[in-house]
Request: fold
Amino acid sequence: MLFKGRIRTLSQRDADGWLRREIIVQKDPNTGLPKVGDTCTLIDSDGDIYKLSFIKGANVSGYTCLGQPGKLKNWFLKHYPRNDVVKDRVVFRSTDHPNEYEIFSAGLMIVSALIHREHDCIEERTALTMFKVLSNSF
Reply:
């Protein structure tokens, strides 16, 4: 299962001067997931783990907010400029464990899909699906 989200600014700085940002996640139109109160574990490309909840605050129809933006600060700092909010897309790909997802920035997900396709680790259909998910507007 794939969920897609987008990064947006909170227009505030934390105590270290970092420009705070958050990820809002598009709900699946068939299931309504993720819902406020759901929890998830995210694993980034370095294997770092983030345990989060979905919270109110997206203020966009069909989306929920991935909670407590400060918990993802290290992930943001690894992938994006410290003081400039890049309004990028992200993808969450489910793992074999319940409520556990790998998190990818849009660019990294496309590269990953193409590399895996090149090495025949995933079907061409899967690589194309990942590309389409990221190519579609939010």
Observations:
- Residues 106-118 form the longest helix (13 residues).
- The mean pLDDT is 81.
- The radius of gyration is 15 Å.
- Strands lie at 2-13, 19-26, 39-43, 49-55, 63-66, 89-94, 100-105.
